[in-house]
Amino acid sequence: MTDLPGTMFAVVQTHDGFSGTATGPGIDNASEWLAPAELPLPEPGPGQVLIRLRMASVNPSDLHFIKGEYGQPRVKGAPAGFEGCGDVVAIGSGAEALKGQRVAFVASGSGAWAEYVVTQAQMCIPLRPDISDENGAAQIVNPMTAMAMVDIARSEGDAFVVSAATSQLGKLMCSLGRDLGLKPIALVRRAETVDALRELGADEVLVTNDPDLPEKFAAISKTLKPRVFLDAVSDQLSEQIFAAMPNKARWVSYGKLSAEQPRLTQMGQLIFMGKRIEGFWLTQWMMSTPPADQIRVVAEVQARFADGRWKTDVSTHLPLRDVVSGLAEALKKTDGKVMITP
Ligand SMILES: NC(=O)c1ccc[n+]([C@@H]2O[C@H](COP(=O)([O-])OP(=O)(O)OC[C@H]3O[C@@H](n4cnc5c(N)ncnc54)[C@H](OP(=O)(O)O)[C@@H]3O)[C@@H](O)[C@H]2O)c1
């Protein structure tokens, strides 16, 4: 590590543990949860690598996390951020295969919103040269989730429902669904996105503030019989959609973009119609899916990005040193990811 600096710039968390709140991923002022810091350069331990950051993506999970509302506790003073891409500049024992490689990574040792990141070698995917840094920085969390969840949908029939379909993950799932011959039914908040979603692969697109939505969805549900609802919003409207789905429908909640806590109004459907409510978390999927299957998924993900079937829409490039002051404003832009650059 002789040619590396002794310290690095990072954006660190200012709170520990969980907050006990459930306010959703929206933020007005990042300085409530984050601060700039100069930290000693982290060292990779056995099985770990040190990565010089090229780009980190801002996902809703990062925002839930810094607010103390995610599935793992915050660590005060540790860099924030889960996902990005960069160059492996130092390795611990057992990680020799990654030496010098450009990799996509999920940060496990220290966070991604820093000039340097330590993570496990298993949390890195070497990137093909034809994958851009923008696609590389969003190569794992959303694409792997899209592959895993569309697989769930496919196991239950042709049609499936996707909420927040203008999200990066929603778009990936609509186009993957279409490519597999399935019929994605997309729910969006903004009417102006309907045509773009249809072009991407949605068979039907419904706008959530349309007063006729219940009747329109009921008619579509009767015809297409969607059995899986892949839901990132998880609010009262989600409950109504689920209630209008046919026998044996599965409501798979994988995100909590809305702060509203839904009330269950049709408990009898769980008993008499065999309906189910469940969750999906990529972390659990990775722990329970055999490595050979995961390798196949990774290869398919890279192939889809390399040949242009998938792409990451980027709204803004935000310099790392401007994250605390500029993140809230940068997140106001719709239709794309905020990408942090060192
Ligand atoms: N469980 C898992 O393993 C897993 C893995 C990956 C992602 N996720 C979840 O997947 C979801 C999408 O992630 P992403 O990275 O694709 O998001 P993204 O690209 O950052 O987009 C989020 C979009 O959701 C829409 N949205 C925000 N608040 C909303 C609300 N209250 N109601 C309806 N729509 C709302 C907005 O679109 P408009 O402004 O166009 O409406 C926003 O652009 C998130 O909830 C994330 O946490 C879960």
TrEMBL record:
Alphabetic keyword roster: NADP, Oxidoreductase
Matches recorded under SMART domains: PKS_ER (SM00829)
Organism per entry: Ruegeria sediminis
PANTHER family per UniProt: QUINONE OXIDOREDUCTASE PIG3, QUINONE OXIDOREDUCTASE PIG3-RELATED
UniProt-recorded name of the protein: Zinc-binding dehydrogenase
Keyword Cytoplasm: no
Pfam families: ADH_N, ADH_zinc_N
Domain spans labelled Enoyl reductase (ER): 26-340
Entry annotated with the keyword Phosphoprotein: no
